[in-house]
What does this fold into?
Amino acid sequence: MDILVCVKRVPDTAENEIEVNSDGSDIERDDVVYSVNEWDNYAVEEAIQIRDNVGGSVTVVSVGDEESEEVLRREMAMGADNGILVDDEVFENTDGKGIATALKAVIQAGSYDLIMTGALADGGAGQIGGMVAAMLDLPYASLVNKIEVGDGSLKVGREIEGGNQEMNEISLPCVVSIQTGINEPRYVGIRGIRKVASVEIPVKSAADLGLSADDAAAKVTRQTYFVPELGEGAEILEGSTEEQIEKLIEILKSKGGIK
Amino acid sequence: MGVTLALMELSRDKEVLPSSLEALAAGKVIAEKLGLKLAALVMGSGIKQAAESLRAYPADEILVVDEPLLEAYQPELYTQAVEQVCSGIKPDYLVMGETFQSIDLAPRLAFALDSGLVTGCVDLEFDSGDVLFVKPVYSGNVMAAYSVEGAPRLATFRSKSFEAAKPEDGAKSPMRSLAISLDQSSVKIQPVEQVLSGNGRAQGLENAEIVVSGGRGLGGPEGFEILRELADKLGGALGASRPPCDLGWIEPSAQVGITGAIVAPDLYVAVGISGSTQHVGGMEGSKTIVAINDKEDAPIFKIADYGVAGDYKEVLPQILEGLGRSK
It folds into this structure.
């Protein structure tokens, strides 16, 4: 099975305090540590496991700038066979639809049985998978937390409300968006990354994909960023451990615990 | 006169979901600000009662699509149905609650209707006749306001970010049935089985006055044992952030967060939870938040009211002992 996994380089919110710049037009990008979008690692892991079981290949693709190459290399160190970088300024300020259009062109230029995305990324939109599938008129399953490979089809588990799961039959080729918890993404060491350091990753422009600036035109435009009013933050209890515990018990009691 | 259309989602028992009534409230804000009509669209099979119940809510019109093929959510058929309704009604805005269904449906609709979509909105701003849709991004450290193009413009609203619309005494909004014709050959994904592993815990969580939740910081399933003791002692429900559910430390139905239960209890105790958007989006409406975490810079302390920077393995036994003494 030939699998394409769409991945994104995002600011690592576990490693950084994200701040807004002075005019609210962007976040402060200096000194920000980036990593692979968490959900995408689960998608790549799942793709690698499927390939190892049934044969085929795993290709990772990212729409981003040259810095996104490190993300592709990391996923190749995990075990992906090929990388493709789509780098063009027309995609710089586009929206989900623009990114989906770029991915659609990549998919059409290749031949894939299964296309995977992470269920969510830093913008929290969760719309790329659904849009790509709709554009290509392919079957789509969202929030997938289980995959069983069948003959010409997949049986996929979808997360639904109340901690429940819905099993679906979906024919190939198809698009699935992967939820965390479907597997345990493997660890990638420095050594693994070194191994793929010199592998060539093709870079595609919009023109290479037969796309124009119009194809990347956004329907959703971010007007501003701002910092939500969070109040003071927590009052961190002080004093000796005993004093802290005593204070905490008082709070628990007064706020409704123990009547 | 333009229209804001709010899509109502029904539970398994064919009752209108609270998140849909919240979306209706958000739709009402848009309609009032922009001088549009507000219509609620309810779809399904055998949904007379749900449709009738909606007439008590403040909407200019209740639109009903009662069609056997819409008995359960099927992505392609639901997309077709909404698309057809929109081609007749021509709404300026289409809003819905953020649910597992709309996470699947909304991107499909965005493409079918050639609309811009903002998912997981928590607020609205109005800027010279234009609506800005506001949502948290980058793990909730930052909010972003988006303008949207399209007819309709599409948005989903995070649970509990708007107060649900309330029925009005004596109100009886006009109701209209719409006929659509669905093409079954478009069906590409077929549900074969529902695995109901949830044990109703999620519902218990959503109604609880006190919730005690654990995160990855608990280190393993054992951590939830002492947490359960605390929850029992406080008379609260036991919850978790996403990672312990993913790791199998506790069942998935315990999950509090955007992809789990959305809670707003009087008291929320977060233990070993760092405070990702995924989790915070599901509990930030809590009246009082107490966080226990050994990492002093954990983001959870930013939204908590009280914090203890310490190891839960030392703190919890002492709390339990203290609570036991004072009882």
In short: Chain B touches chain A through 103 residues (CB under 8 Å).
